[in-house]
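Can anyone check this?
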Amino acid sequence: MAKKGKHDNRAYFFVGPYLTVFFVFLVLLIIISIVLSFTYFDTINFPTWVGFKNYVTMFTQDADFMQYALPTTIKYALIIGPVGYIISFFMAWLLAQLTHKVRTVIAIILYSPSLTSGVLMSVIWKVVFSGDNRGYLNYMLLNWGFINEPVQWLQNTNFIFGIMIFVGIWGSMSVGFLAMLSGILNINKDLYEAAYVDGMKSKWQEIFYITIPSMKPQMLFGAVMALVGTFNAAGIAAALSGSTPPPQMAGWLIVDHMNDYGFARYEMGYAAAISVILLVIVLLFNRFATKLFGERK
């Protein structure tokens, strides 16, 4: 029998490759971003230390960030996250009631939009919301007599954000949806039988008293993936409207703002500061999700 110390060493050996990749491509990059956020870096000259200047500028002088990027991102996440999450859960629950073959086909259909990026989906929906009479939505509304002339859906700031929400919900059933489907399918069926024997009378009681408590790890994973996906969204409004930034900054998200400063203006230090603020926001929302679905032991 191997000694306990040797057994521990073998465990570290197997975990080592993952820890190495995790540190190099995640932890190290986060550390570099935090350090760069305190510098001015134009990608050509060596970074110059500026302290908290980037953060002060962001919250006191950057009107585009405070008036458009930050509130739009939070509003987008608060709508897409919960709505997409609830839809994912109930679609997973409905699919769990079907036979294996039918469930597999429908799950692939529902999951396929998330395999394409938000930009690609925006290009597809751009045809639907085209501003001429050949756009599918305008064509139907004109034929039905609801409008007298084509509506510029993608150039009107009153409609762009709503279309973004529609596109985001359409592609919200990602890996979290598959995790919840797997969690539901792996719940012990004896629990349902015992509950009905004890007096459970409806499917709603089944969902709230057995299904959700039995799959909290999958619910937490789905919540985290939904948060990361919504806060990581970028370029949707620009792809829909065909301009960067979109008209009157409608639909301008934090990642759009970060990409603009990093890859258009080459102010990598400021872009790094934006990424750090985004990381803090995601961590705060992730903390809330952990309290909601995490184990209390």
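Reply from J.R.: I decoded it. The chain has one domain: 62-293.
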